[in-house]
Design a protein that fits this description.
Pfam family, one: BPL_C
EC number: 6.3.4.15
Number of domains: 2
Strand order of the largest sheet: 1-2-5-9-8-7-6
Shape: globular
Largest sheet: 7 strands, mixed
CATH superfamily of the largest domain: Bira Bifunctional Protein, Domain 2
Number of helices: 4
CATH architecture of the largest domain: 2-Layer Sandwich
Keywords: ATP-binding, Biotin, Ligase, Nucleotide-binding
Organism: Georgenia satyanarayanai
Order of helices and strands: EHEEEEHEEEEHHEEEEEE
GO molecular function, one term: ATP binding
Strand content: 25-35%
Distance between the termini: 36 Å
Structural class: alpha+beta
Number of strands: 15
CATH class of the largest domain: Alpha Beta
Length: about 290
């Protein structure tokens, strides 16, 4: 195994939410939680999604962890944290091998999907959600740099009965190798540490660091017809064409107008029937 990628790891048997626990711990003693600290739990009873949806995991069946990041980049570059964490998870899972490893990808900006080859599911086709990322910005450092808690959840050994919704899957169900949670966390940390260092070396410029191209290469949303439900109720229909330097999704509508999507619920749509193939809760606003 490679060198420990984390500066600190706190392991708990059970917690409500790893992100809540880490956020409270950092508030109580900021100095005890340096950059690339991790809080991991065997059993999470009240995990949270962006819109406040709750979920729990059976003990030992999933990777449930939150990371404390203090990247040396301008605060306005912070939305890239979600994309970089997603890329790290995709690479760590792919590195585990398996016939469908190449089917694992990132759904902009915070879901990790895999085509598990099972029967088509209304609204999803054969794609299923394997994991997700939730980034929460904390008050910035004294020099104005971002401080963030990045929650990471990956389904490992659950069967269909223990998953909360039919659109979810696990490595076991998808026929992919199932690592121990600690091993996958180590792999994610190794990938993420390297990505963040490259990002810092270019002052948060993901394009100059080559990270924009690397995220684009694993992003399953690009080239798809999407429906974006934006804050305030507006709905945008179009094709997801690219990511820009700020990590925004660029969508071209039917009139050919380009839109930069910073926040909203993004759903993949089948062009033939106009039906929704899957949604992702998104909010990259600082």
């Amino acid at each position: 195994m490679t060198e420990q990628p984390f500066t600190r790891v706190l392991h708990l048997a059970e917690v409500g939410s790893t992100s809540t626990a880490l956020r409270e711990a950092v508030a109580a003693d900021p100095g005890a939680w340096p950059h690339l600290s991790a809080l991991v739990a065997d059993h999470q009873t009240a995990g949270r999604g962006r819109t406040g949806r709750s979920w729990h995991t059976p003990p030992g069946a999933a990777l449930t962890a939150s990371l404390l990041l203090r990247p040396r980049v301008p605060l306005e570059r912070a939305p890239w944290l979600t994309l970089l964490a997603g890329l790290a998870v995709v690479r760590a899972v792919r590195a585990g091998g398996g016939d469908r490893a190449h089917e694992v990808g990132l759904k902009w900006p915070n879901d990790v999907l895999v085509d598990d080859g099972g029967p088509a599911l209304a609204g999803w086709g054969t794609a299923r959600k394997l994991g997700g990322i939730l980034t929460e910005l904390l008050p910035p450092s004294v020099d104005g740099r971002p401080v963030a808690v990045v929650g990471i959840g990956v389904n490992l050994s659950q069967d269909a009965v223990t998953l909360p919704v039919a659109s979810a899957t696990s490595l076991a169900i998808a026929g992919l190798p199932v690592p121990a949670p600690a091993a996958l966390l180590h792999a994610v940390g190794h990938e993420l540490g390297g990505l963040v260092r490259r990002w810092e070396e270019h002052d948060g410029d993901a394009h100059a660091a080559g990270l924009l191209a690397e995220v684009t290469a694993v992003c399953l949303t690009l080239g798809r017809d999407v429906r974006v439900e934006q804050p305030g109720g507006a709905v945008l229909h179009g094709r997801a064409e690219s990511l820009d330097g700020d990590g925004c999704l660029v969508v071209r509508d039917a009139a050919g107008v380009l839109h930069r999507v910073l926040a909203g619920d993004v759903l993949h749509v089948r062009a033939d029937a106009g039906s929704v193939e899957g949604g992702s809760d998104v909010n990259l606003e600082l």
